[in-house]
Amino acid sequence: MTDALPPRRLLLVHAHPDDEVTGTGATMAHYVAAGAHVTLVTCTLGEEGEIHVPELSQLEAKQADQLGGYRLVELSRACAALGVTDHRFLGGPGRYRDSGMMGLPTNEHPRAFWQADLDEAAGHLLEIIKEIQPQVMITYDENGFYGHPDHIQAHRVAMRAAELAGADGPEKIYWTAMPLSVLKEGMEAFRELDDNPFADVEKVEDLPFGHTDDEIAARMDGTDHYDRKVAAMRAHATQIPDNSWLYGIAGDFGGEFMGVEYFLLAKGERGPGEGPQNWENDLFSGVKTP
Question: Which residues cross the membrane (predicted)?
Fold first, then answer.
């Protein structure tokens, strides 16, 4: 099948619908526009998510338990906004269930992704890797960026699938990240916002995420596509309310914050970079493509 695909192929492994937008939406839109083949794999339907649309509140897990089916539609709309045409659910829609936040009883649900057999779940992803043969894969770090069990499990599954793929796996693997220097700038900039996401944080080191500048390997400038990212966010209306601080960023700072995304390099050789930190500006940097 790869003969029919573009020479550059990017695979992203995310835990729930809407995760693809916040940390990698601009990057996805950038590579779609550049002619690469972008494949998004989402591991759950996000059944345990909060609902920020009051008229849809009965969809929640404790009532009709139909939120996952609704979020499937939201994800389809978000992918359309980003230009992504190849989206899969790990093992098929509904194979794995949203586990909820760490420590909740929902972690113990028999279909919870947190309870998934690692090799079985990785096997589903391995099939996609063999089919698409991506040179680059993106997922989360060992802590799932901020500690959500499904994010941690997505990391484990992605890394195990790459291990099983061996030499036929992705040449480069990136983990989503955020530089501490950017977080510090954000904390200062957001102090004037009514919906300040850092209001209860005294110093940036207290956040459950963040990396030093020298740990960051790549800075993707997708500011030309940040409007697509915002449109994809709006597609996830049940999860991202109209008054979200994310839209405050979009309105007050535009592409400066919304359109730039950062990554750690977990596998592969770091390619040429630019700027004072010598960060890569292309995730395919150094990759040999046909």
Answer: none
Residue 124 annotated in ligand binding: no
* Annotated binding-site residue? 16: yes
Residue 236, marked binder: no
The answer to whether residue 6 sits within a structural domain is: yes
- Let me know how long the chain is: 290
- Phi, psi for 169 (deg, rounded to 5): -85, 180
Residue 42 inside a domain? The answer is yes
Per the confidence metrics, is the pTM higher than 0.85? yes
Contacts for 55-62 with beta carbons within 8 Å, 24 or more apart? 56/238, 59/238, 61/106
Give the chain's domain count. Answer: 1
Q: Give residue-wise pLDDT tens across range 253-278.
A: 555 677 899 999 999 999 998 888 99
Q: Identify the domain containing residue 59 by its residue range.
A: 2-267
